[in-house]
Amino acid sequence: MSFSSEDGRAPGSPVPPRRSPDNTGSSGGAPGNPDLKPGTSDRTDWRGVSFGMALSCFVAFQQFKLPPILPSLLQEFHYPRALAASFMSIYAVVGLLASLPLGRWLKRRGYGAGLKLGIVSAALGLILALGLARYGSVLLLARSLEGLTYAIFAIAGPVIATASARLRDLPLVTGLLAGWIPVGQIGAGLLALAVPKGAASGLADWQLIWLVALALTGVLGVVCWRYAHHQNVGRADSPAKATQAVTADTDAAESRPAVVATPPDRAVSGGRLAAWLAPRLADLLAAGTFLLWSAQYFAFMTWLTQYLIEQHHLQPQQAVLVYLLPVVVLLACNLLTGWTLGRGLPLVPALIVSLILQGLVWALTPVLGNVTGIIALLVYGICAGVIPTCLFHLPHHIASHRHHRQLGEPGGAGNRQAIKAGPEAFATLMTGRNIGVFCGPLLLPQLLALLGDWNLAAQVIAVITWLGAGLTIGLARHFR
Fold it and tell me: Is 46-239 a CATH 3.20.110.10 domain?
């Protein structure tokens, strides 16, 4: 597996000076690599892309392996429901606290140490749970250790995958990455269905699932070890270049251009807050949009089956089948959106339209029937495929915009030459997402308790979704 730097430097070589705006000059590439213009690579390393995707899907699987077997755990150990709910929310808490520091640490130390820490943390969490799950506090600690792995891999996975992609394939890769959560959900659900009930081994079904998860951790650990120790497992290039590529991209697209993006007189006139906010505004707007969208999405996915049972009187099996419908649709739309972004689909307008449509699905909840409800779920799934693909591509879009602003090009010119974003940009984005993941599942029950009606609660969620569209409109104005 190889992770090639965009300028083709050999591992350990110093970072060369930035090229002039006319993109002339030689890259000083490694043997076998042609001289490349900045922001390009010879070809996509699909093994590197697969590795980054595997990191993301692995932690999504680890998180969502709990819900299918939670009833068994409650029956066996009689956890309080509030504690049982915290087994899921602890992932968001750890991610919220750790994403930004981890992003800076990964940029400074490289991904080798981070991947090792992630594998060890996941293995310790799984082993603790297998041995001491009867103690709710220990299981919560075990899930928090898994959450640390989640926080690391949720940053490392997208950056490693995109660092391995040539810019022409970057939208497709972000489309693939945007499906990491549903892939983890479907994988965990299928595993739970495959585990025999009352296995002859004498182990509970949840224990078998945890053992499979531990085995997967070991397999992924071998791949991470090879990456961390600079082994060649793909093309002849060294995987150590990924760190240099990410650092170079981050330096070029985030640090210098970000400061230049806002004229000095505006920053000074606005005071210290404006000076601090100006270079970070686009990242914060993107993170705020992800926060609001994630809150409504996780509220939707957490409580959809209960809503269908209570409001539409479906049987539990029917509710699960209806629940899976938008998940399958959104996976297909993840890929389609990534493909169309690479062929000119305007990112920000697509994001705005999809957010407005998803809010409309929430707003129309009181008047939906059987047929119109299925149509609404299909629309919701389509939008749920478009939105995260666009959101995961936003850091690159923002980095390109900053790069071209630095070169003095007019707004919108950043689309002509893409620049890859680094771990700090993804850490900011994932911080917003983690806040939404934490709040969403908790928000809807509180609205139900306050308003006493599913339909009224849905109107509030619709407003939240439309607020996300409003932030995206603000981001569009920032790009002008």
Answer: no
